[in-house]
Design brief:
Layout lengths: L1 E6 L5 H10 L4 E6 L11 H16 L3 E6 L2 H14 L4 E2 L5 H8 L3 E6 L1 H5 L1 H10 L5 E5 L1 H8 L6 H10 L8 E6 L8 H7 L5 E4 L1 H14 L11 E5 L2 E2 L3 H17 L3
Parallel strand pairs: 1-2, 1-3, 2-9, 3-4, 5-6, 5-7, 7-8
Antiparallel strand pairs: 9-10
Bound molecules: D-glutamic acid.
């Protein structure tokens, strides 16, 4: 059977990329809801319908667990989906706890989509772990569009980030938390404009660890001789050269991001 990794677009490839390192013998199905990206500016009601539809499509493909590799979908819909489906659903959680535990000597900036920033899940997380009120939130929806268009390291991106960070005095901050999986592609641009002492954290490792526990507890870990990865754009299997190449370019970029 396969492990499904799901996102609105190509952000969740960063979770797949890490999961492949941890589970090289598992079969994967990557599902990008590319007909409906971006998710981060939609309403919660719209997102519940879209995520529900995506899960229905994935379940048809013989999957044993679904990683919702999208903070926005996790925030808006995972609770409802858990009530509806019995298949293990593993969500994202921005690494706010880790940031507070390790770098709580100074302020922490969380960047995410508008849905995630204003969602109840984020508010609950912050009231649970941010006892000293150290966490600030900024929504950066344009980064999702840049990532989908393969625009990563250029003037436009840097100007956008600088403009959005104009009121942040990074002297008072220890770290930045990437609360959207699409933002993993911008580690180099962020590194370029942020002072050196700022730590960049993402939630991917936490999610992959949760996936491991889920597979182990349910006794569904596999070691396949010839593991496969399939890609879907919304309900359609990606089989054409152009799009397979596109996905390969993103995975290559993620290799490069590991060095940052
Ligand atoms: N990658 C998604 C996330 O982690 C959302 C991007 C979007 O579609 O707005 O939040």
């Amino acid at each position: 059977m396969k492990i499904a990794v799901f996102d609105s677009g190509i952000g969740g490839l960063s979770v797949l990329h890490l999961a492949l390192k941890k589970f090289p013998k598992e079969n994967f199905l990557y599902y990008a809801d590319s007909d409906n990206v971006p998710y981060g500016i939609k309403t919660k009601e719209e997102l519940v319908l879209l995520v529900d539809n995506a899960i229905k499509n994935m379940i048809k493909e013989d999957v044993k667990a679904i990683v919702v590799a999208c903070n926005t979908a996790t925030s808006a819909a995972i609770q409802k989906m858990r009530e509806k489906y019995t298949i293990p659903l593993i969500g994202m959680e921005p690494a706010v706890k880790k940031a507070v535990d390790f770098y709580g000597n100074k302020r922490i900036l969380v960047i995410a989509t508008p849905v995630t920033v204003r969602g109840k899940k984020m508010q609950d997380l912050i009231s649970k772990v941010d006892k000293e009120h150290l966490v600030d939130l900024i929504a950066l929806p344009k980064l999702v569009n840049f990532a989908e268009q393969e625009i990563f390291e250029n003037m436009e991106v840097e100007e956008y980030l600088s403009e959005e960070f104009r009121n942040i005095d990074f002297k008072n901050y220890s770290s930045i938390v990437l609360g959207c999986t699409h933002f993993n592609y911008f580690k180099d641009s962020l590194r370029k404009i942020l002072p050196e002492h700022i730590n960049i954290l993402d939630g991917n490792e936490g999610t992959v660890n949760k996936l491991f526990l889920e597979l182990k507890t349910n006794n569904i870990l596999e070691e396949n001789e010839e593991p496969k990865i399939e890609f879907y754009y919304s309900g359609r299997k990606v089989e054409d050269e152009e799009n397979l190449k596109r996905l390969e370019r993103y995975l290559k970029r993620l290799d490069f991001m590991l060095e940052i």
